[in-house]
Amino acid sequence: MLLYCNELGLIGGENFAVDGLRLPSNASIDMSGTKKQLGKRLETYRKMALKHIERHERRDAQGLNDEGSEKRFENRQKQLGMRIEKISGFLEKMEKKEGRNRAEIKSNVTDNESAMIQSSKGYIQGYVGIAVSDQRSQVITSAQAFGSANETEHLPEMLDRNVQNLEEAGVRIEGGKKATMSGDANYFSEENLQACEEHGIDAVIADSQGKQRIGSDGESRYEIDDFKYNEQEDWYECPQGKRLEYKRETTQKGVQGKVYQASLTDCKSCPFFSKCSWSRKKQSEQVQGKTLRITEKNKQGSECRKMRAKLETVEYQDIYANRIQIVEPVFANIRYCKGLDRFTLRGKGKVNSQWLLYCMVHNLGKCLNGRNAEKPEIKGFRALAAPIQAWL
After folding, report:
1. pTM exceeds cut of 0.85
2. How far apart are CA 156 and CA 161, in angstroms?
């Protein structure tokens, strides 16, 4: 499909955008939980089945049961029995799933390769379909579905697939230019930015804390670059000349870092407190001084710090502003026009196949539009394409 898209000149190969579409799958969210939670649910269903039998026996002794109640009793017991059998069988073979901070995350009895994902409509049990779209005609150049609540970790794999697909399709950038890849804050991480650099791609990814860096008065707060590091004695100096001493090492969500802290007295008397603190408490209500947490993301020379500096320039702000125009129409087409509002299959392999087929149909529509624009005189082709195009 990409070979034909490239033949029609539909792929620019210079500017791309990546994003994910979160959709529910053919799995019940009620059958999700940790091993302990599923064990409690199993016991609840067993108690429900036992109480249902006892109540039926009492009614039977009183002669209150008829043919209809007998049928309802059998159906209810069958439902409870199926749930008990399904959960107990799952727990026997269950392996705990771990999140980024190595804490146990919820498994799903119906489809354990799906995940509990937060969407705009709340939590769903499903998959995220990630797609990379080219700017010229919104052709999807790589796509993959993942049963994961976190999109961040999948960008390196998407980059690998995108580079491979473009090479096989014969897409080349003239003049040795670097391709750009824009993404929202979900993809902002040191690992992702390093992966872009390794692929020779100029990343334009929004800072996950970009909005928090602007104060209530509209003035930018102090950044990590505003604090000078004394490497020899291992402490930081704030813009007002106060010291932030090393306190401890810390680990948050699997990311290690070092904590430096200023004196509470210095911060309470600082006239630039509003530019420095992200706390919602008033200056007089503070219980500790300014804290810096230094990790791989924000240490000197990190890709994240370079990215934040890029996003302060008009050039990269304009590039990022085009992200919505590149990738969002793709998802609108697939979800609204093609009708994919949920995955109907179970298992990552089958769900991924369904996602790829919808992405191919999207690209097929681009090919038909490109073919009609290229050779409008071929009436036979247009007549053949008309019913397909109407469906697309």
Report:
1. no
2. 9
What is the DSSP track for 137-165?
A: T--EEEEEEE--S-SGGGHHHHHHHHHHH
Query: pLDDT tens digits, residue range 103-153?
Result: 788 899 999 999 988 887 788 999 999 999 999 999 999 999 999 888 889
Burial 84-119 (b: 16+ CB within 10 A, else e): beebeebeeebeeeeeeeeeebbbbbbbbbbbbbee
What are the residues facing 249 on neighbouring strands? 258
Tell which phi-psi region holds residue 57, choosing left (phi > 0), alpha (psi between -120 and 50) or beta. Answer: alpha
The DSSP result for 181-194, as a single string, is EEE-GGG-SHHHHH
Number of domains present in the structure of the chain: 3
Indicate if the alpha-carbon torsion angle 240, 246, 248, 252 is positive or negative.
positive
Same domain membership, residue 194 and residue 233: no
The CATH number covering residue 348 comes to 3.30.420.10
Give the angle subtended at the CA of 212 by the CAs of 210 and 214, to the nearest 5°. 90
Q: CA 318 to CA 303: how far, in whole Å?
A: 20
- In the chain, the largest separation of any two C-alpha atoms, in whole Å, equals 90
Do 18 and 63 fall into the same domain?
no
CB 182 within 8 A of CB 320: yes
